[in-house]
Amino acid sequence: MEHYRQNLRAFAAFFVPSAGWLLVFFVVPLAIIFVYSVSETISLTEIKTTWTFENYARLLEPEILTLFWRSLWLAGISTVICLCVGYPVALVIATAPAKVKPWLLLLIILPFWTNLLIRTYALLNILGTRGRLNGLLEWIWTQGDRALTFIGLGAYDLIGEDFEPITFLGRWSGVIIGLVYVHLPFAILPIYASLEKLDRSYLEASLDLGAGQWRTFRSILLPMTMAGVMTAAIITFIPMLGSFLTPALLGRGQVDMIANVIERQFKGANELPFGSAMSLFLLYVTFIILAIQSFAASRGSRRGIK
Amino acid sequence: MPDPIISIQGVSKYFGDFMAVEDITIDIEPGEIFALLGPSGCGKSTLLRMIAGFEDPSEGRVLIGGEDMTGVPANKRPVNMVFQSYAVFPHMTVSQNVAYGLKMDGLPKAEIKEKVAEALEQVHLSQFAARLPDQLSGGQRQRVALARALAKRPRVLLLDEPLSALDAKLRDAMRLELVKLQESVGVSFVMVTHDQSEALAMADRVAVLKDGKLMQLADPMTLYQKPANRFVADFIGRVNFFDVTQSTKGSAEIIAGPLGALTLPAPVTGTGEHVLALRPEYIRLSPAKEGGLTGTLGDVGFQGDSSIVEVTLEGGKQVQALAGPEDTTMLLSLGTGAAVALSIDLSQARLLPA
Ligand SMILES: Nc1ncnc2c1ncn2[C@@H]1O[C@H](COP(=O)(O)OP(=O)(O)OP(=O)(O)O)[C@@H](O)[C@H]1O
Ligand SMILES: [Mg+2]
Asked: Which residues form a coiled coil (chain B) (predicted)?
């Protein structure tokens, strides 16, 4: 890379277009957002840049804090679920026979070939009160009811008189299911990659020294693949925090996350400055998370975990 | 003879259709260094892994201390292994690595501490106890792996190519150190190696494997002097082979081949196609004189204390002879292409099945 000075033109040929792209479509819009975030709405059509911090101060209003808090825990819980589900799946793929492995990986990335909007509508269909999931639950309930009747306990309504469908849509449960569904592949892939890299003989050494399977998982496998787990956590948590479509459709306006409120500032409320401040705040949070992660990673690599 | 510490009884291992280990029966004595020797892919590691419990035999069984190990998982077997890659846990310090196996035994903290210190002492790593593995050299990491396995007081220590990841100089030093260590702890070592000089130098007994089959099991001296077949003779040390036809004439064995008609002093059985194996050190070269066996001098490979000399016999057959320092000087003064006489010590020749 040090040779770029000697070959300035070739370097420029590569550098200028990409730098130009970043400048026009990334830096400039970000700068505009920043300027908006320190501006004031004067009238319905006029916004004046007054270098005020008013918009940032408004982030501390209780309802906004509640919103942030809700976004954080929805994304947090969904991330934890993604990791808990993703790790075993990654483990199954990593230990699968060489012939099966590519097919399993294909299954994981298959959803990416369908548009997110379509997948989310499909989820609506599954999670509705008359959706497939409740259909399945009703079937199970009916079987259970029949079994109870059969053994002579039918009269006691032990599992309720009638089947009551569970409401997912417009509830946080539906939003979490949606977030997990959309982001699960992003959790599986980095964990899989770190498992794949791990030399089997570490696990054998642990068994050889007398540790059982569970102990080996806890003391060797998990710590040695922590880098992959951290990456998985970051690349699921950050987009979840800013996710828009999933809460909009599955939350039905009743489980808003940050992005939904930001959108309303820009579109309906004509509150560009406040929306900009919220957007930038989200960006700052992301930066902080990444900073923590890279700090943790550099400490991890000093301890030999790569 | 004491009861064997490990008894491998008719063990075979298939991977699909492929037979990696074929009907092997070996007893390993307490307190010995036992080497599994063979070329790459001959099934040495697979056999070792079946003792450790990482692979199950397809046929046969493994007994450790007289107990059948069939169905006993690796973490319940009284043996420990030093892996080829060492597999020292990178996220634990040296002493945590050594303590890991002791913790699994549920020993009290104080005792663990004591045993860790003792194990590190044994491999001269006491001052590195608090280091992480990536702050150690390859040789030191190997000693961590050794200490970690030995701290468990296994009945047998299994070593898979223990020296192959070290550079040549360190490898030689570690050979001696491993033998000394084995003498001081007294447990049996079963080591896998593809390096015949390593096996000869370290082991009390060696099993030579080829394509999953046991070719010969003997002490190093016997392997070298009395190889049971062509493969073993060839694999261990340098050797000249002569295709010969044997006929029995009275009690003397007359052999016809590129060396002319010879009479072997040692009794051999059977007649027909055989191969005569002769180590280079039993061929002595001198300036050509009338009669006897002669050849043309080729390259003289100087090795310091001796040299390996190529000679082409009259029929075109190439042989190797070992020359001492004085003979080397003599041969170098004769120069390549000179005629030399060969005198052969037939008492050291081995007649093997072709
Ligand atoms: N899990 C496996 N599946 C299929 N084949 C295997 C497996 N493990 C080993 N083999 C095959 O069995 C044969 C013996 O393998 P093994 O590892 O025991 O060889 P080795 O003697 O230790 O060789 P090296 O000196 O190269 O380590 C090889 O041909 C190898 O390809
Ligand atoms: Mg091997």
From this structure: none
